[in-house]
Write a structure and sequence with these properties.
Number of strands: 0
Shape: rod-shaped
Mean pLDDT: 82
Distance between the termini: 155 Å
Low-confidence stretches: none
Largest sheet: none
Number of helices: 5
Number of domains: 2
Length: 142
C-alpha cells in the first residue's frame, strides 16, 4: 500500500508567520476603523493630545528655568559662559584656579602685614614701658 501525504503545505514557517502577522494587522486596522467611526477613539486622541500638551508645557517650563539660571551673572562667572571666546572658555577652570590662588595669596599677605603691624605696636609699647620703668627707677634713687 502506498502512503500519501495529504497535509503537504508549500509554504514555509516564515511565510506562514508573515501571513498570520498580516491577518492580525488587518484585524487591528478594522477594529481601529470601527472605533474611529463610532467615536471611541476621539476621546483617546483628545486625552493623548492633552497629555502631550502638558508634557510640552512642563518641558518648556524646565527649559525656561534652566535658561534663567544660566543667564544669571553669578552663574555665568562661575561656569565661564560669560566668556565669548571658545579658547578662553575652554581654559576658564585654570583661570579661575589662578584667580583663587591669587586671592588666597593676597589674604595671606595682608594677614602677615597685620601680624607685623601688631608685633611692631607691641614692641613699641614694651619699649615705652621699659623707658617708663627706667624713669621711675631714676626718681626712686637708683
Amino acid at each position: 500500500m502506498k502512503a500519501t501525504n495529504d497535509e503537504f503545505n508549500p509554504l514555509t514557517e516564515e511565510e506562514l508567520q508573515a501571513q498570520r502577522d498580516s491577518e492580525e494587522l488587518d484585524r487591528r486596522i478594522r477594529r481601529m476603523v470601527v472605533r474611529v467611526q463610532s467615536g471611541e477613539a476621539d476621546e483617546e486622541i483628545a486625552e493623548d493630545r492633552r497629555l502631550e500638551e502638558e508634557e510640552r508645557a512642563e518641558a518648556e517650563e524646565e527649559e525656561r528655568k534652566e535658561r534663567r539660571k544660566r543667564s544669571g551673572l553669578k552663574w555665568q562667572i562661575f561656569s565661564g559662559s560669560i566668556l565669548t571666546s571658545r579658547g578662553l572658555a575652554d581654559n576658564y577652570r585654570y583661570f579661575a584656579a589662578i584667580a583663587v590662588m591669587c586671592f588666597i595669596s593676597i589674604v595671606v599677605m595682608f594677614a602677615a602685614l597685620y601680624a607685623d603691624m601688631s608685633y611692631s605696636r607691641m614692641e613699641n609699647d614694651v619699649q615705652l614701658l621699659r623707658d617708663e620703668l627706667r624713669r621711675q627707677g631714676a626718681y626712686l634713687g637708683e
